[in-house]
């Protein structure tokens, strides 16, 4: 893990919705090349944290920073430096994977040649014969691959993943994890919200456990075993920690 | 960026099965109604021409008789509808199709088709203009109600937001992309209509301009509906809520607004009933307008003036026919009274038309329908223009017969006669319909209301863009 200034940071972040504190005084730092897995049950505040980086919601207090700048003060930062992959990668059903990739990239001011687009899809693991098929016929895993291709094309500094392996079969989840690891190894900072302990252990450098909006524990992923991770998670989930 | 969005929306809309299904259904409906309308128009034009020619020939071939008796035979004249009326017959079903011109009295048009319709006809009154002004906006609603809400529901809006896509460009791109796709689907039907019209009617430059302007305002109208639908789709959280609201708006605009407008106009500017209208004309003639004196006083004054003019003391000694001269004088007064009352009635129609826009706050359909019938030359203003021309013609041929009567008799005798050469010398009624400038001036309030709605819809689209959240 790199110790230089973080690509993604949350400083005393508080996000409230109608009296409900979804994120409570969160502090975290994710440097270049680091995969940070946020674990926690439903309503723990993981997705809200990611949404705040994407400016889908505003902090009630504190701030999020992308390479030291607030995306809420400079919306262009989101487009220039972040890639986003939700649980269900949302694509246009009546368009092919190739058309979706080209469309989203053009909107992000990235001009791709046909060869480049095909190459990005292949690199993301989407078979060539699927490139021209309409997305309506794609599996969830295939959609994730198009999402990855979009993220790769952006050459973003950081990637935000919201439950990325939920609903994927083990093989597809493993394949996806390897591609995320590879992206981090190329220098990308990755913040991943997930329920999937196995996936978190497999791919993350650091793991944080959230509960009721608070980061209740944070540790190096390489220093814990699967069993230990599961025990920590369950202890927090059951209120035993 | 906006070009990319337009292109994507265009392709996505074309690939959407809804557009194809609804587009083909409407195309079939449009073509069906259009062919029926065109056939009706052709029949009507042929009938009017045939009856007009026959009526004039019957006038021409009258026997030797007193010119005033000949005038009482009367002449029927007809307003020829423009080819654009095949797209919008406007008020034709409710306005008399023929005007009988006779001495002494200015008539209203007679024989409105609605009165001749059998009961079953009331159930099948959809027309081409109904497809254009009511059903096509419904197609737009069906295509756009989920244009943004679906993106929100599927998550693509979050994807777009994460790419920093400008919400304004996204919404306006959707609007332009959709309108382009819509035009592509609509174009074959309109092209077909234009080809059929050109093949079946002698098209003047003015007809072509009217058709072009009608297409332009229809596009503004569709654009208004599309912008409102996209705004609603961006504003409401779910597609279902958006659809309900848009259907409510469509119903209000297409069906409730015209009714509300008509009722408001009738309450605020009521028309006299027919018996009252004719009674007032008779009263004005009998009792005279202000300072004119009653009929008897006017008759005495005229007789004195004529006797003085010709230097005689008795009507019997006049070198010209006094009966005809007196009749012309009375008719001139009748023309003056009729003109005042007819103008007042028709001015009230205009007032009512403007007041009917009180219903326009519910939607742009009322303004569009009024504008459409004006461009088709099937509104009250064009009818008034025709009736005024017919009135001029009535005065022309009645005065001509009175001239013959007066010049061919003396004093109080009634011996003047005319023959076929005289009757044939009466020129045919040749009506020159007003040009498109007249139509646009007439419809300026409708145009203004339509533009206000367009401005409002674009403004709402901008507001929705500012508020748009993933």
Automatic annotation (TrEMBL), chain A:
Keywords: ATP-binding, Nucleotide-binding, Transport. PROSITE patterns: ABC_TRANSPORTER_1, ABC_TRANSPORTER_2. One of its GO terms (molecular function) is ATP hydrolysis activity. Residues 8-237 form the ABC transporter domain. It holds the Pfam family ABC_tran. This is ABC transporter ATP-binding protein. It comes from Methylomonas methanica.
From TrEMBL, chain B:
InterPro entries: DUF3526. The keyword Transmembrane applies. This is ABC-2 type transport system permease protein. The chain crosses the membrane at residues 20-39, 129-149, 170-199, 211-236, 243-262. GO terms for molecular function: ABC-type transporter activity. Keywords: Membrane, Transmembrane, Transmembrane helix. The keyword Membrane applies. One of its GO terms (cellular component) is plasma membrane. The lineage of its organism: Bacteria, Pseudomonadati, Pseudomonadota, Gammaproteobacteria, Methylococcales. It comes from Methylomonas methanica.
